[in-house]
Amino acid sequence: MEMTAQQLSQYNGTDPSKPIYVSVKGRVFDVTTGKSFYGPGGPYAMFAGKDASRALAKMSKSEEDITSSLDGLTEKEIGVLNDWETKFIAKYPVVATLLN
């Protein structure tokens, strides 16, 4: 399945009848089982319904970093992002591919 960023934004945890999705490097993960982290009030709620690639790479929760853009990231930041991607793959099912 493929989805747009606009479609992804509908899965941000505010509608309890829908799952919670987070995208990392263009893969959309169902993080509903991590609702305490990604749901409303959770420490990573700002990533729900969005591509969090840049923010994860930079270990940032700043709104301007919550984007799929990897432009200008250092080699170390790319390594951090790859580690996050590995963790997401191990923990959460991939449900879609994010279209640019």
TrEMBL record:
Segments forming domain Cytochrome b5 heme-binding: 3-99
Keywords carried by this UniProt record: Lipid-binding, Steroid-binding
Domain of life: Eukaryota
Cited Gene3D superfamilies: Cytochrome b5-like heme/steroid binding domain
CC annotations in GO: endomembrane system; membrane
Claim: Magnesium is one of the keywords in the record: no
InterPro entries tied to this protein: Cyt_B5-like_heme/steroid-bd, Cyt_B5-like_heme/steroid_sf, MAPR/NEUFC/NENF-like
Alphabetical list of SMART domains matching this protein: Cyt-b5
Listed GO MF terms: steroid binding
Family: Belongs to the cytochrome b5 family. MAPR subfamily.
Name of this protein: Probable steroid-binding protein 3
